[in-house]
């Protein structure tokens, strides 16, 4: 078995694809994924709780609700459109990659904060996922 430091680089691309995968999963599979993630996070949360002081609910809510500004969302949409049309410059492409990286980091932080908030409130993670991450229409 690979050491944790050797396996982490392999996990990063997988995690970054998780949002797209979650959008495509049927409800029954989504429930299984959430339960699996809860099981995996249980041990990590126990370790992090012993290593750092309890994070406040307000701080977790701030992380969960963090999004790109409307201007940044508009710019990201433009860059994606340019990329899909094949009309993107190298500078724009690098900007697009920076936005994608930022959104993926925010998604990762949001997931971690949701798990911590579920523990803090002593509620099922699915409750918070439904509260803070409403289902999106695939028609968009």
> In terms of structural class, how would the helical and strand content be classed?
mainly alpha
Distance between the termini: 42 Å
The main sheet comes to: none
Number of domains: 1
Output the radius of gyration: 17 Å
Protein name: STAS/SEC14 domain-containing protein
What is the gist of this entry?
The chain is mainly alpha-helical and 140 residues long.
Explain how this protein is built:
This protein has 140 residues and is an all-alpha fold. It has one domain (4-132). Helices cover 79% and strands 0% of the residues. The protein is built from 7 helices and no strands. It has helices at residues 4-16, 18-24, 27-51, 57-65, 70-85, 90-121, 125-132. The mean pLDDT is 79.
Top keywords for this entry?
140 residues; mainly alpha; STAS/SEC14 domain-containing protein
Write the layout of secondary structure elements.
Elements lengths: L3 H13 L1 H7 L2 H25 L5 H9 L4 H16 L4 H32 L3 H8 L8
Helix pairs in contact: 4-6, 5-6, 6-7
């Amino acid at each position: 078995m690979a050491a944790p430091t050797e396996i982490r680089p392999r996990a990063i691309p997988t995690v970054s694809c998780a949002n797209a995968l979650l959008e495509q999963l049927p409800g029954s599979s989504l429930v299984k994924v959430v339960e699996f993630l809860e099981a995996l996070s249980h041990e990590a949360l126990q370790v992090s709780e012993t290593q750092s002081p309890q994070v406040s609910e307000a701080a977790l809510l701030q992380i969960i609700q963090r999004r790109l500004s409307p201007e940044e969302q508009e710019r990201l949409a433009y860059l994606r459109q340019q990329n899909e049309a094949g009309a993107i410059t190298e500078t724009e492409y690098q900007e697009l990659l920076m936005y994608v990286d930022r959104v993926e980091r925010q998604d990762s932080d949001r997931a971690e904060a949701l798990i911590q908030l579920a523990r803090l409130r002593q509620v099922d993670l699915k409750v918070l996922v439904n509260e803070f991450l409403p289902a999106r229409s695939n028609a968009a």
